[in-house]
Amino acid sequence: MNLIFPHTFVPWFRSVAPYIHAYRGKTFVVAMAGEGIAAGKLSAFVQDLAILQAMGIKLVLVHGFRPQVSEQLRAKGHPERFSHGLRITDAPALDAAQEAAGQLRFEIEAAFSQGLPNTPMANATVRVVSGNFLTARPVGIVDGVDFIHSGIVRKVDATTIRRTIDSGAVVLLSPFGFSPTGEAFNLTMEDVATSTAIALQADKLMFMTELPGIRENQEDPESAIDTELALADAEKLLAVLPATKPTEPGFYLRHCVKACREGVERSHILPYSQDGALLMEVYTHDGIGTMVVDEKLESLREATADDVGGILQLIEPFERDGTLVRRERTSIERDIANYTVIEHDGVIFGCAALYPYPEAGTAEMAALTISPQVQSQGDGERILKRVEQRARAMGLNSIFVLTTRTMHWFIKRGFQPVDPDWLPEARKRKYNWDRRSQVLVKQLQ
After folding, report:
1. How far apart are the first and last CA of the chain?
2. How many other C-beta atoms lie within 10 A of the C-beta of residue 39?
3. Residue 78 pLDDT grade (very low, low, confident, very high; cuts 50, 70, 90)
4. CA–CA distance, 112 with 291 (Å, rounded to integer)
5. What is the 3-state secondary structure (H, E, C) of the chain?
6. Which of 15-24, 123-132, 297-306, 347-356 has the highest mean pLDDT?
7. Does pLDDT of 1 surpass 60?
8. Which of 276, 288, 211 is nearest to 44 (CA)?
9. What's the CA gap between 109 and 100, in Å, rounded?
10. How far is 383 from 378, CA to CA, in rounded Å?
11. 254-277 b/e with 16+ CB inside 10 Å = b?
12. What number of other Cβ atoms are within 10 A of residue 441's Cβ?
């Protein structure tokens, strides 16, 4: 185990580093459904939040309490009433909500106070601050239904919350708000979290929910999770999805869409059932749930001088094992306009260079590299297509590659092996006969 661990841990930790740098000092609003707390997920969830804070992320935590309020009402023998997807909060329900909120706040603060040795909370000092940060107004009477003490967020004291999280504390919000006259209103966790994220212009709004995310095929409950939804696509999907109950796919999606419309960069739907979902979503390439973003984070584009460092970091392991020929930084800087890259969230995950030989009507595609983290996801084909487009735009008839290990990948994509003598004269003079690379050519239609 000691021999294996460095070979797995070190590359993994290095792959996480760009996200640590990217999110330091950013503001996340994280909302945990009361169902997750009832399912016993609070302790691990708080540990993950403490890790995020240790990485320099500013946190606002919003907790839900739907099942806890329901349990209180059952204990009192009082029936629950719902309409339009909201709880009708009469006087007994308001009392039950206040009791549930108090108990949950106590449990959350206790969880943040853990510090047992050999646990993620060891040596952690996390201050939790609660307060009357929310002003609310009544839902009122809707379609003849009086919601009594159920409310909607009217205003968020963003200035005080910002000052508190800037001091290093975690702000804890319960789904309660107060009117200017001191009247208490029962709010929804989703409304509180969304309104707070918008008021703070948070970098992320993250819902820990009963759902694994939004599935690519709504007709197939076993289909893959759509890990990234552009806002426009999310709006179209929301128009046809049920969104009344927390177990329905559109329920949290509508809050994600609202947040992104009003300035929150990214909104997430994550499953609380998956241990470490919060960390995986923040610190891995594809995450685990569904992210709604105003525009696609992944871009396929021509490289700029700012990408040199990312390209070097990407190709260096392949140069070291002999898959690629070594390239000096100066040569990449000189030829940067020849490169095409795939960037995701500020990190380069794929690249290729195109070197034209116009006198021979062809061009060499070199340094085609895809990060091991995202291989077999089609990024290689995407870069190849873009390189082919660039070659056609130059009026070239073919592209060729030199390879020692990946010939089968290219052959499957229309390349044909040829003798090295086929190479343009200028390239033939630089051919390394000791390396004995295979030459493969693809004709461009």
Report:
1. 53
2. 13
3. very high
4. 27
5. CCCCHHHHHHHHHHHHHHHHHHHCCCEEEEEECHHHHHCCCHHHHHHHHHHHHHCCCEEEEEECCHHHHHHHHHHHCCCCCEECCEECECHHHHHHHHHHHHHHHHHHHHHHCCCCCCCCCCCCCCCEECCCCEEEEECCEECCEECECEEEEEEECHHHHHHHHHCCCEEEECCEEECCCCCEEECCHHHHHHHHHHHHCCCEEEEEECCCCCECCCCCCCCCECCEEEHHHHHHHHCCCCCCCCCCHHHHHHHHHHHHHCCCCEEEEEECCCCCHHHHHHHCCCCCCEEEECCCCEEEEECCHHHHHHHHHHHHHHHHCCCCCCCCHHHHHHCHHHEEEEEECCEEEEEEEEEEEHHHCEEEEEEEEECHHHCCCCHHHHHHHHHHHHHHHCCCCEEEEEECCCHHHHHCCCCEEECHHHCCHHHHCCCCCCCCCEEEEEECC
6. 347-356
7. no
8. 276
9. 14
10. 9
11. bbbbbbbeeebbbbbbbbbeeeeb
12. 18
Amino acid at 19: Y
The model's pLDDT over 292-328, given as tens digits with 9 standing for 90+, comes to 987 666 678 999 999 999 999 999 999 888 888 889 9
Going by pLDDT thresholds of 50, 70 and 90, the confidence category of residue 6 is: low
Length reported for the chain: 445
Identity of the amino acid at 66: R
Residue 219 burial (CB count, 10 A): 6
Compute the distance between CA of residue 261 and CA of residue 249 in angstroms, rounded to an integer: 19
The verdict on pTM exceeding 0.85 is: no
Interatomic CA distance for residues 225 and 290, integer angstroms: 7
Nearest to 269 by CA among 287, 245, 244, 296: 287
Residue-wise pLDDT for 338-389, tens only, equals 999 998 877 899 999 999 999 999 999 999 999 987 777 788 998 999 999 9
405, 396, 406, 400: which is closest to 420 by C-alpha?
Answer: 400
